[in-house]
Amino acid sequence: xxxxxxxxxxxxxxxxxxxxxxxxxxxxxxxxxxxxxxxxxxxxxxxxxxxxxxxxxxxxxxxxxxxxxxxxxxxxxxxxxxxxxxxxxxxxxxxxxxxxxxxxxxxxxxxxxxxxxxxxxxxxxxxxxxxxxxxxxxxxxxxxxxxxxxxxxxxxxxxxxxxxxxxx
Length: 168
Known about the structure:
mainly alpha, 6 helices, globular
C-alpha cells in the first residue's frame, strides 16, 4: 500500500462520488447517494483504519466525496450534509455535533442495510425477496458501523481531554 495522505484520500473521495454520479445516471433505478457513500467509505475504512492518522484520512475522503456531491446538487438542496454546515459555522462544538450527526446517520444506514440483507427488514414473511447485499457486503457495512462508532468515541474523548486538560 502506498503512503496514505489526506490529499490522496480527498482525491479518492472525489473520484468515488464522480464514479457514482456517472454510473447512477445510467441506471434505470437509481441508488441512493447515502448507500454509495456508506459502501465506498467502508472500503476506505477497511484499507486505512490501522494507519496512525486514520481520522484525518477519513475526514479528507469525506470532504472529497461531499464536495463533489455538493457541486453536482442543485443550489437549494434541502438535504445539505451536516458536514457542509459545520464547515460554514467554524465552531468546534458545532463541528463535533455535525460529525456526530453524520456518523450516527451512517451507522444507522449501515445497520439497516445489514438487517435488511439478513432478512430482518421485511414485515411480509410470505414474500421471498433477495437480500439487499450479499454476505460480504453486509459484513463490510457492519465493520464500518463498528469503526465509525469507535471513531466518534475517540473524537469525543479527544475533545473532552482538550477541554478538561487531560482529565475525563
